[in-house]
Predict the structure.
Amino acid sequence: ANSVEEQKFSLKEVLDTFSLCLSENKEVYIEHYVEGWRGLVRFMNSLGSVFSFISKDAVNKIEILAKFFNGENGTHYSTIQSMVKYELDNGLVDLAKRDKYPESGCRTLLRLHRALRWLELFLERLRTSSEDCKTSVMCSEAYNESLAQHHAWIIRKAAGMAFCVLPGRPTFFEVMNVGTSEQVVSMLGDALPLISEVYDITEKLYAQHELLQLP
Ligand code: 1Q0
C-alpha cells in the first residue's frame, strides 16, 4: 500500500490515469478507469463535507468494481469490453428491473460512465471560461445536460445545493495543483480529448448491447 490518500491532489495525475485507460485496440481498462475516479473523489473530498453524499456513492461504486476486478473472475473484468461480454454471456445483468443482480458490473459502471459525461462537460466549461465565471453555474449546467436526466428530483435538489457552495474558479484552479491558470487551461485542453474518447467508446459499446438504460 502507498500513501496516495495523503498526497496532495494533483489534477494532472488524475488525468494521466485516464490516459492509461485505453489499450492499443481501444479497449478500456477498468483498473485505470476506477483509479481515475478514486483521484476525482479525493479532489471532491478536499472541497468539503457537503459533497460527501456524492463521494459516498461514488466510492461505493468504485468498490463494487474493484471487488469484481480483484475477485476470482477478475480476468473477465480487465476491460469494460470483457466485462460486458462476460456478464451478458452468463446472465449476470438485470436488464429490465433490479432483481437478482442489483450490483452488476455493467449497471455500476454505467453510473460512473454517465458521471464521466458530466465531468467532460464541466471541464470543457472550466477550460473555456473567463476569470469571473461562476463554477456553480458551470457545474449545474453540465449536470443538467447529463446526469440530472438520470436522477430523481430529490437528488437533483441536493446536488443543486451542493453546487452552490463550490469554491470560485481561482480556488478551484489552485486546488488542482497544476500551476498558473494558463497551465490549467492547457492541461485541460490535452486531457479532454482523452476523456471524450473513453466516454465515446463506452457509450458506443453500451448502445450496441442496449445497456444504456440498465436499472
Ligand atoms: C465538484 C463537484 C462535484 C459534483 C459532482 C456532480 C455529480 C452530482 C451527483 C449527485 C448524486 C450523488 C448521489 C447518488 C446518486 C445515485 O442515486 C446515482 C445513481 O446510482 P444508483 O445506484 O442509485 O442507480 N449515482 C450516480 O449517478 C453516480 C454519481 C457519481 C458522481 C461522482 C462524482 C465524482 C466527482 C468528482 C469530482 C470531480 C471534480 C471535478 C473537477 C475536476 C477538476 C479538478
Notes: The domain at 9-205 is CATH 1.10.3520.10 (Glycolipid transfer protein, GLTP).
